[in-house]
């Protein structure tokens, strides 16, 4: 029973949090003529547009251009020395973000949904009380409720780190300055993108990683190749290290390591993962349970423990990619309408936008061997692809794993220019369960990076 002084508004769909899955479902449902309320604390369009994928990839574009300018003479041009203008850089990023925020806001309103800026907390099953940004208050109950509150940067429990007010993957994009010296805590995907980016902007970057190498979930040959390229571009890497303490004094940050060494910097970027935004939601009142890390517990239909209550995107523990969140929307939309769509067996690609970029889908070689299958492994240096030579971007290694019996592709890692685009070709072949020979023998336009697939699947190393 809801205890409140306010009238309870009943709607067909209540969405708490406006990330990719939630906002897409809200707009779709509203366009179908149903009553929809979507509550968002402040990031119109969600994390991806405001502080994640879109602004970071905008800055990646700038970093790549800076590197391209540095090798302009090899392309027959004299451009002089590229200089980063902080104001222009910030303006570029903010222009891209603001344009997408404006587009999203307009789409919200045009869809017919009731878009509410405010902070929601559950007061009963499927019912929230919303503190509006304008000072008012509403109580809304949904026939179905979707929780889509996302995640935020996690600050590791390192002595002195929080007190040093480290940069995070979100705050670093405020671009208050380009630090002369930047220490990145964490050699994962987020940390490496920013490390490579700021090295291109002129920072002296040091990455500290606890494990023996970067990207521990990737095959060693791919990870080591990327490590070499990062070092070539001026990123210093220290692995097998543990941060003992962080000390901030008079604008300088000292990172003390367990072995007694010290790394000094102007700024520290804490790239140590993300945590769910579930505190303050009072999920217990809704009958929704979380796991030991605070992520909402869901089954493979993305249903929570409470009836007609769903969770999507990062907060549901889904892989933290916008394209996965979009698929979560498809699953929940189908299941709200009585379907039985599931997250089981999803083929999820991901991309690391370093330079060159790394694109991955399916099993690594190590994972494939662990299944007991008889496999074949193909490798191709990117310099063997004609298009890479015309781009003057020949760093990289492509790798694919194939089932020896069925000849189907089990997985691939593409490290090289335009890899994220080429990966979709491989993923499509995997969806279609095509034998690798179709890509080996297919007529692919010349000269393109995708043409390298012909050569890759003729380059067996086993």
TrEMBL record:
InterPro entries: FAD/NAD-bd_sf, FAD/NAD-binding_dom, FAD/NAD-linked_Rdtase_dimer_sf, Pyr_nuc-diS_OxRdtase, Pyr_nucl-diS_OxRdtase_dimer. Its cofactor is FAD. Gene3D superfamilies: 3.30.390.30, FAD/NAD(P)-binding domain. Residues 348-453 form the Pyridine nucleotide-disulphide oxidoreductase dimerisation domain. Keywords: FAD, Flavoprotein. Residues 12-326 form the FAD/NAD(P)-binding domain. It comes from the Bacteria. Belongs to the class-I pyridine nucleotide-disulfide oxidoreductase family. This is FAD-dependent oxidoreductase. It comes from Streptomyces carpinensis. The lineage of its organism: Bacteria, Bacillati, Actinomycetota, Actinomycetes, Kitasatosporales.
């Amino acid at each position: 029973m809801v205890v409140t002084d306010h009238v309870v508004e009943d709607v067909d769909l209540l969405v708490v949090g406006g990330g990719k899955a939630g906002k897409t479902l809200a707009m779709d449902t509203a366009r179908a003529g149903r009553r929809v309320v979507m509550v968002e604390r402040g990031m119109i369009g969600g994390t991806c547009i405001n502080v994640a994928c879109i602004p970071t990839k905008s800055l990646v574009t700038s970093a790549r251009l800076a590197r391209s300018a540095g090798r302009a003479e090899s392309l027959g041009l004299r451009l002089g020395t590229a200089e980063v203008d902080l104001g222009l850089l910030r303006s570029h990023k903010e222009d891209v973000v603001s344009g997408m925020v404006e587009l999203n806001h307009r789409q919200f309103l045009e869809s017919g949904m009731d878009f509410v800026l405010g902070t929601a907390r559950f007061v009963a099953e499927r019912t929230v009380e919303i503190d509006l940004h304008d000072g008012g208050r509403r109580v809304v109950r949904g026939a179905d409720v979707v929780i889509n509150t996302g995640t935020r940067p996690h600050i590791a429990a390192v002595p002195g780190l929080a007190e040093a007010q480290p940069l995070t993957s979100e705050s670093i994009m405020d671009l208050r300055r380009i630090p002369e010296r930047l220490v990145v805590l964490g050699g994962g995907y987020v940390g490496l993108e920013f490390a490579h980016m700021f090295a291109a902007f002129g920072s002296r970057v040091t990455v500290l990683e606890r494990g023996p190498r970067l990207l521990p979930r990737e095959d060693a040959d791919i990870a080591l190749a990327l490590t070499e390229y990062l070092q070539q571009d001026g990123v210093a890497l220290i692995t097998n290290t543990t941060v003992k303490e962080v000390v901030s004094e008079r604008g300088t940050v000292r990172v003390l390591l367990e072995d007694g060494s010290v790394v000094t910097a102007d700024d520290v970027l804490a790239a140590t993962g993300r945590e769910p935004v579930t505190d303050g939601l009072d999920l217990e009142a809704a009958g929704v349970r979380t796991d030991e890390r605070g992520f909402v517990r869901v089954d493979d239909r993305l249903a929570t423990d409470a009836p007609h209550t769903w969770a999507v995107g990062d907060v549901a523990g889904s892989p933290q990619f916008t394209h996965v969140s979009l698929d979560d929307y498809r699953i929940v939309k189908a299941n709200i309408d009585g379907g039985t769509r599931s997250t089981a067996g999803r083929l999820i690609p991901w991309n690391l936008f370093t330079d060159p970029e790394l694109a991955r889908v399916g099993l690594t070689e190590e994972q494939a061997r662990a299944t007991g299958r008889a496999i074949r492994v193909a490798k191709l240096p990117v310099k063997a692809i004609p298009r890479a030579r015309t781009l003057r971007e020949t760093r990289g290694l492509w790798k694919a794993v194939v089932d020896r019996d069925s000849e189907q592709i089990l997985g691939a890692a593409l490290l090289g220019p335009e890899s994220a685009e080429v990966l979709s070709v491989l993923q499509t072949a995997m969806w279609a369960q095509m034998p690798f020979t179709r890509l080996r023998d297919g007529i692919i336009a010349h000269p393109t990076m995708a043409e390298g697939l012909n050569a890759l699947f003729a380059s067996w190393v086993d």
